Amino acid sequence: MIIGKKLIKKLNLKKNDAYFLLAGSLAVITDFVIYIYFKNLINISLAKGFAFFCGIVVSWMINASLTFKDSEKNITKFFMYLFVLLNSMILNISVNNFFLYIFNNKLDVVLSFLIAISFSTIFNFIFFKYWVFKK
Fold it and tell me: pTM to 2 decimals?
């Protein structure tokens, strides 16, 4: 098991909540590393969008198989997932750009990134749990 039973019990998490946090954490790391690498090579919004999309791939693999244990993999559900993530990406890029504009210090990129990813994580969880993967 990737996440230990003792840790799940200590944090008072359900197993699928722990997997969602794992998926989100790995997606954020993927997103951040790719964003930092590409932000000076291409347009910053394109870098953010591409990095976010790479994080999406990581989150889909974990969420579909472990978090929500989706046995019904059909084209409709796939497009619902993509629809949520497209809207989440738009939200993420918009929030990131807004806070890049607001902040004016050396931590602006990191702080803007963290705020943007927080917004999209909450958005994703709500729509994944209650719309895409509802039982």
Answer: 0.63
